[in-house]
Design goal:
CATH class of the largest domain: Alpha Beta
Radius of gyration: 20 Å
Number of domains: 2
Number of strands: 12
Low-confidence stretches: none
Mean pLDDT: 94
Largest sheet: 7 strands, parallel
Helix content: 25-40%
Order of helices and strands: HEEEEHEHHHEHEHEHEHEHEHHEH
CATH topology of the largest domain: TIM Barrel
Oligomer: single chain
CATH architecture of the largest domain: Alpha-Beta Barrel
CATH superfamily of the largest domain: Enolase-like C-terminal domain
């Protein structure tokens, strides 16, 4: 059976829901807002987290309150079908992709609730044993770029591994210093972002600088729409991995060449069925996978760590414990690999 087939018929009773706002300053230089969905029924509560990036969308959702007609009984798949017919945004979202993020919040809350009502854990239903999760810390190095964010974290946590976002202010001195740390597992060129605070417009010179200095690092989301970049990276295709373009199994199949590795962010897929299809597709086609975060502030971070522990525990998972995205991480944070911490019931980690 496929992974989703094992979950689709879980009985689910929904009586209502509540919304909880969260807010925190994070390392990419912005204030992160998220919304926790508390879905209730049968004396249990399921939680999911909306990681929509635009604060206005969270304000509109929280101001509107629990107005969606979600109450009812059936299987998990019946609840998912109900979401197909509902607009989860009381006002038009700033970005259309946010519809997927919010869909994931409600579906993950429903999955958590269904499992709690059944008295079972996600790993139990899927027949998978949670395993220790390796992770990287995702960072931007400021403008102009500086070694300080890496250096300060390594001083406190010497064994950290990193996923870094190159920008045009990176220079030879910086990349040489990064190479000397031996701690960079991947570099994210953000080649598929447009109109965001993380857009990266560097050309072939930046790719040559970074890819040459960090020969062991994965190359995430290069902009192959630039012919000179595509030409240069032809010799490095075995290191290229994809994130932002991946919203479905079909997107994996449509990549310009067969990937060795992809970043599977559940919130980018929206529906649990689509997430499970991607996991199964990668396993069937011997494609490596790792997970990625979206600056989750609460239950959402644990849920992506849980999925990583079941499906891709050994990859360069961008699922570091939340404190590492603080401007100054506190001492005492969990280090990699994360020990399995699945709750006895539900879709919770820790």
């Amino acid at each position: 059976m496929g992974s989703y087939d094992l979950l689709a018929d879980l009985p689910l009773e929904v009586e209502g829901y509540e919304l909880e706002g969260r807010e925190r300053d994070v390392s990419s230089g912005f204030t992160r807002l998220s919304t926790i969905v508390h879905l209730r029924g049968g004396g249990e509560e399921g939680q999911g987290e909306d990681v929509t990036y635009d604060g206005l969308d969270h304000v509109a959702l929280q101001d509107a309150g629990p107005i969606l007609p979600l109450a009812g009984s059936g299987g998990f798949a019946d609840f998912a079908a109900k979401l197909d017919d509902l607009d989860l945004f009381p006002a038009e979202p700033v970005r259309d992709v946010s519809r997927l993020y919010r869909r994931w919040a409600f579906e993950s809350a429903a999955l958590d609730l269904a499992l709690r009502q059944a008295g079972r854990s996600l790993g139990d239903v899927l027949g998978r044993e949670p395993r220790p999760v390796t992770f990287v810390v995702s960072l931007r190095l400021g403008e102009p770029a500086s070694m300080e964010p890496v250096r300060s974290r390594l001083a406190a946590y010497p064994d950290l591994r990193f996923k870094l976002d190159p920008t045009e202010s990176w220079d030879q001195e910086l990349v040489d210093a990064l190479a000397d740390t031996g701690a960079v597992d991947s570099v994210d060129f953000k080649g598929h972002y447009h109109g965001s605070i993380v857009d990266q417009t560097g050309g072939r010179d930046l790719y040559e600088l970074v890819v040459g200095a960090l020969p062991e690092a994965w190359i995430e989301d290069p902009d192959l729409g630039k012919p000179d970049v595509d030409e240069f990276l032809t010799a490095h295709r075995e290191r290229i991995t994809w994130d932002a373009p991946i919203h479905s199994m079909a997107d994996i199949e449509a990549l310009p060449f067969a990937p060795r590795m992809v970043n599977l962010k559940p919130s980018r897929f929206g529906a649990l069925e689509a997430v499970c299809a991607a996991f199964d597709h990668c396993a069937e086609h011997d494609i490596g996978a790792y997970g990625g975060g979206q600056f989750e502030l609460a239950v959402g971070r644990g849920q992506i760590q849980y999925l990583a522990s079941l499906f891709h525990p050994d990859g360069p998972n961008d699922v570091a414990p939340a404190g590492f995205d603080d401007p100054s991480p506190a001492p005492g944070l969990q280090t990699s690999p994360l020990a399995p911490a699945a709750a006895p019931t539900g879709f919770r980690w820790g």
